[in-house]
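Our preliminary data section would be incomplete without showing what the modeling component actually yields. Below, a chain of 90 amino acids is followed by its predicted structure, encoded as tokens that our downstream tools consume directly.
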Amino acid sequence: MLLISYDISDTKLRTKFSKFLEKYGERIQYSVFEIKNSERVLKNIEAEIRNYFEKKFTQNDSILIFHLSENCKITRYGNAKNRETDVLIV
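Predicted structure:
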């Protein structure tokens, strides 16, 4: 699982980056995404960030990628706590 946090100054690039991440994961805060997928897909996401987006980032931009294992403990409060369980709508 990846946790990706970003602070991008250019609005157009920020929007493009968030739409890219939305294809793979869930927005858990305004500029934080949680992405659960196969190791191959996670590596492809990082490659896309490195090969396409990185050259567009400025010194004012910040992207953090946290690699979380299945054993990683995540404590959630507030709205984030509700996202911990799957919701089935019938």
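Helices lie at 11-22, 39-53, 79-82. The mean pLDDT is 88. Preliminary results of this kind motivate Aim 1 of the renewal.
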